[in-house]
Design brief:
By secondary structure, the protein is mainly alpha-helical. The chain has eleven helices and two strands, in the order H-H-H-H-E-E-H-H-H-H-H-H-H.
Length: 288
Amino acid sequence: MSLFLSQLFNGLATGLLLALISTGLTIIYGTLGVVNFAHGALFVVGAYAGFTAYGLTESFVVAIAAGSLVALVVGLIIERGLMRQYYGRPPEDQILVTFGIGIILVELVRSIYGGISLSVPTPEWGQGIAHIGSLIYPLYRLQALGIAVATLGVLYYVLYRTSLGLIVRAGIEDAQMVNALGINVKRTFLLVFGIGAMAAGYAGVIDSPIVTLSPDMGHRVLVDSFVVVVIGGVGSFPGAIVGGIIAGQILSLTSMFSPAYSHVMLFVVMALVLIFRPQGLMGQEGRE
């Protein structure tokens, strides 16, 4: 029972982290119509930027800020310098260019830090264990869960309680109509891409004390995030959260019995969703 409860908490923590990453992905895809294959690389960039900042300052708060800021700046540069030229291009062009950007970013990280695995120490305030009834659980994992919940709450407030969020949600539904109303859609697109990139970098720093850092770790995150978006529904913020929690629990609970089949089960669930509800659990029917 203790193992089962521990896996439930692991699944919840993993799921909320995936939800945080997928939120940035689904916002970019829903608003801009761009399948951003560089999203996993931005996760890596944020994690390594946080690693460097933590080594220089020994402050995890500074590391979070640095990782988020670096990912934000890189995202803005990508959107302003290249992606803006591809909004009207076929989807395969967008996939190829973002895939290429992702490879370039990962290889830049590899050239700077090398290919060996690195680790970020758990911050002092996250060291130790927590007692939840009969369950003994790492304290930082609980804190990471709380950080993810709080961040998703902030993103929800921005998207559903501010004028910026209203514009973003309207742009997801009909960007041409928003443009016709006199709103600078290009500037909004730049901001949306930056927010999505920052969410990926932020999640990379939060996850860094839990996993070892390697330049290739973004590939797994990217694949899992796309699965979350498919399960939850394209362009749906609540869908990203629900899909992330479902994916996290599948990965965690399946690994109790057969770790090798955890991702197999995740793709099985995704396939079932595509068969019986192609728009996703909380997506809108008829969206492309």
